[in-house]
Write a structure and sequence with these properties.
This protein has five helices and 14 strands. The chain has helices at 3-8, 44-53, 86-90, 141-145, 237-244, and strands spanning 56-61, 64-72, 75-78, 93-96, 110-113, 120-123, 128-132, 163-166, 174-176, 182-185, 189-192, 204-206, 212-222, 225-236. The chain has a seven-stranded antiparallel β-sheet with strand order 5-4-1-2-3-7-6. Strands 9-8-12-13-14-11-10 form a seven-stranded antiparallel β-sheet. The mean pLDDT is 89.
């Protein structure tokens, strides 16, 4: 065993370059084997992602699908452009655990209904809707799947990484967590590079501690090439909290 490799790594004299001639001054030195920015994650990060994913549901619509998530014991959030009115919410089915299991089998999904007659609040300016979820067998949806606490006080920052648990194109639940930096922040929104697709509307945008920092709502065109998408966008959770007030629990 080369014991000095274990703690210090191999030195230049023991490394044979296989990538052609020339030096690579853009690569940092003195940081072990970190190539560019470091991508290490504590293993609890995977546990936190799986826990957060439980509260995220596929929104099955009469025509198409979207995403949403529980933000209270019986309170569900998605985009205004998903649930523009009470009839939209009434006709939807919320499908939790809509995913593939590790062995490739389809997991057993759990379906719930919205009851907009009990509670329905929407805001097209911030593109969010809150709706009550009907109980089943004297249990709330959060009794089964938990909910994401929005009153955490965390905010997004430029160059921070953000992760999105979603149902792109209505597919089984997925997470996007690579090439995922925040690139711009406005008064009420953030823009990021994290991948999305049709069906991602209404997804929670998480920081690396799985606090929800935004509600994903749209893709952003390149100002110089309007048919080329170069960022994604979501509305800040603190802006939504300020508008929704006491409807969202502490």
């Amino acid at each position: 065993m080369k014991a000095h490799w274990v703690m210090s790594g191999t030195g230049p004299q023991e490394f044979i370059w296989q990538g052609g001639e020339g030096n690579h001054p853009e690569m940092p030195t003195g940081f072990g084997a970190v190539i560019g920015s470091q991508n290490f994650k504590e293993i609890w990060w995977l546990e936190a992602a799986l826990k957060a994913a439980r509260s995220v549901a596929r929104v099955k619509l009469p025509a198409g699908a979207a995403t949403g998530f529980l933000v209270g014991p019986d309170l569900f959030m998605t985009n205004h452009h998903v649930f523009e009115n009470e009839d939209d919410a009434r006709s939807a089915i919320l499908q939790f655990n809509y995913r593939l299991s590790v062995d490739g089998d389809v997991a057993e999904r759990d379906e719930w209904q919205c009851v907009p007659d009990s509670l329905f609040k929407t805001n097209p300016e911030l593109d969010y809707t809150l709706v009550r979820v009907q109980q089943k067998e004297n249990r709330s949806a959060a009794d089964v799947w938990g909910f994401l606490n929005l009153r955490h006080g965390a905010e997004a920052h430029v160059n921070q990484r953000v992760n999105i648990i979603q149902h792109p194109q209505g597919r089984f639940q997925q997470i996007a967590f690579r090439d995922n930096q925040v690139k711009a922040i406005g008064d009420n929104f953030i823009q990021y590079l994290t991948d999305t697709d049709y069906g991602t509307s209404g997804s929670p945008v998480f920081d690396d501690w799985f606090h929800v920092v935004a509600l994903h709502n749209m893709r952003v065109p390149d100002p110089s090439e309007p048919y080329r998408w170069y960022r994604n966008q979501g509305y800040k959770i603190e802006a939504i909290l300020a508008d929704a007030g006491a409807l969202i629990p502490v």
